[in-house]
Specification:
Elements (H helix, E strand, L loop, with lengths): L1 E4 L1 H9 L4 H12 L1 E5 H14 L4 H10 L2 E4 L19 H9 L4 E3 L14 E3 L1 H8 L2
Parallel strand pairs: 1-2, 1-4, 2-3, 4-5
Length: about 130
């Protein structure tokens, strides 16, 4: 199974390195194929540098420990062919997940929770943990 993790999941897991979220993220990356888009990685880097520059080494180590594949975010997106999402800035992430044909997209962004799509399944990390680890 392939799983894409959203930026907010990576940031939270990296920031709270010893938290339950970080442990769940590690379990997911050890059990499934993780896919990250270049946009997710760039957002992660930007947030790290802007908001948490003093934790740069922690974030770098966190990313080094993750085993993941990278996919390219499309540069141009025809909004008519993708499911509707409230925040138009999220279309590149949604398009990346669809084009990469991931099975599950894990996010904490509530805008994704109302997207009408069968694949990828859009789940919170808690929903994923309950379904796949319990």
């Amino acid at each position: 199974m392939t799983v894409m993790l959203d930026t907010n999941i990576l940031i939270s897991a990296g920031l709270f390195y010893s938290s339950r979220l970080a442990e769940l993220t590690k379990r997911i990356t050890n059990s499934y194929t993780i896919v990250l888009s270049n946009q997710i990685l760039e957002e992660f880097q930007t947030v790290m540098e802007q908001k948490f520059p003093h934790k740069k080494k922690i974030f770098e180590n966190f990313l080094k420990e993750l085993n993941y594949e990278t996919v390219m975010t499309p540069l141009e997106i025809d909004l008519e062919i993708y499911p509707k999402i409230r925040d138009k800035k999220d279309y590149p992430i949604l398009a990346s997940a669809i084009l990469a044909d991931v099975d599950v997209f894990i996010t904490g962004d509530k805008d994704f929770s109302v997207v009408d799509i069968k694949k990828p399944r859009i789940m919170t990390i808690e929903e994923f943990a309950l379904e796949y680890f319990c």
